[in-house]
């Protein structure tokens, strides 16, 4: 590939609700324009018409970036647009690709399909690509977990790989620059969290951790640093974080906090349960009139 050539991008859809495609199209307009000016999206089943998936499979040219949206299965009931299983198509495309990026929780680890269906054959791409194929890959598979993925995470990953050739990944193969912080970081409700002032679903003030099931303190995500639509996030509009970037997503009863004897079952990452309970007990002895007044206004 010469410096004048745009890196090629193939977007392969498997078992998906198309949420990550919608997310990409909701990106900042200038960033999305920069993406189309900097990359050659040669195949997307909803956005391109020049080539079919069979054309991509039959071409001799290598794919620079293969992006997969959705979970994978070898079940013939889930034929794709190319009349083959998503498992077979994924493995054929993987052998032709320089970088492979799982876009969304379903592609990364199976997501809702693996968690709430009886079909054990539906998995993420990491468990679906043949081991021999993985050994032949030049680069590690990159997981962009989320339901859906923030559009900027997709674009930032593509530009970083194009410009630097690699990214530092965490234990779940997610880019550290995007997933090393927690959704809790940058949350505008942190003072309420510190003083244990609980709010309610949809309210502008108050913490959503103690009763509403917010997973911000234990979810690796930059949602409150890289804002959605450049202006907001779930917690900023009164919606609890549901932990969609974590491998245990989705969980049952996501909008309530599981407790034992009135104490949250899960505590924030990086602190022991004993230490957390000690701090929480001390904080509850204080009544911060300013915060409670704002909650009532």
Note the gap between the termini.
Answer: 60 Å
Strand portion, in percent?
Answer: 5-15%
- Please count the helical segments: 12
Element-level helix/strand string: EHHEHEHEHHHEHHHEEHH
Structural class: alpha/beta
Read across the widest sheet, the strand sequence of neighbours is 2-1-3-4-5
**What is the C-alpha radius of gyration, as a whole number of Å?**
21 Å
Largest sheet: 5 strands, parallel
User: Percent of residues in helical segments?
Assistant: 25-40%
CATH overall fold name of the largest domain: Rossmann fold
Shape: elongated
Query: What is the CATH level 1 assignment of the largest domain?
Result: Alpha Beta
* Counted beta strands: 7
Oligomer: single chain
What is the CATH H-level superfamily of the largest domain?
NADH:ubiquinone oxidoreductase-like, 20kDa subunit
Mean pLDDT: 89
Poorly predicted regions: none
């Amino acid at each position: 590939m010469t410096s004048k050539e745009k890196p090629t991008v193939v977007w392969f859809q498997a078992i998906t609700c198309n949420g990550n495609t919608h997310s990409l199209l909701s990106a900042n307009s200038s960033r999305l324009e920069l993406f189309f000016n900097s990359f050659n999206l040669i195949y997307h089943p909803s956005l391109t018409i020049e080539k079919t998936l069979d054309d991509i499979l039959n071409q001799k040219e290598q794919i620079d970036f293969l992006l997969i949206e959705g979970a994978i299965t070898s079940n013939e009931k889930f034929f794709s647009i190319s009349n083959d299983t998503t498992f077979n198509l994924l493995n054929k495309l993987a052998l032709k690709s320089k970088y492979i990026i799982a876009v969304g929780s379903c592609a990364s680890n199976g997501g809702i399909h693996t968690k709430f269906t009886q079909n054990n054959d539906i998995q993420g791409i990491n468990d679906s690509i043949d081991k021999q194929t993985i050994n032949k890959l030049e680069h590690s598979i990159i997981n962009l977990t989320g339901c859906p993925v923030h559009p900027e995470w997709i674009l930032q990953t593509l530009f970083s790989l194009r410009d630097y050739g690699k990214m530092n990944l965490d234990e779940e193969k997610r880019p550290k620059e995007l997933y090393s912080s927690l959704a809790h970081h940058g949350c505008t409700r942190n003072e309420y969290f510190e003083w244990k002032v609980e709010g309610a679903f949809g309210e502008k003030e108050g913490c959503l951790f103690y009763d509403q099931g917010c997973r911000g303190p234990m979810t690796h995500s930059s949602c409150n640093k890289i804002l959605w639509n450049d202006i907001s996030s779930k917690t900023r509009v009164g919606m609890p974080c549901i932990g969609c970037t974590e491998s245990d997503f989705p969980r049952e009863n996501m909008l309530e906090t599981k407790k034992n004897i009135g104490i949250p079952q899960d505590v924030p990452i990086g602190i022991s349960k004993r230490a957390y309970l000690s701090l929480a007990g001390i904080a509850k002895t204080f009544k911060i009139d300013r915060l409670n007044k704002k909650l009532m206004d």
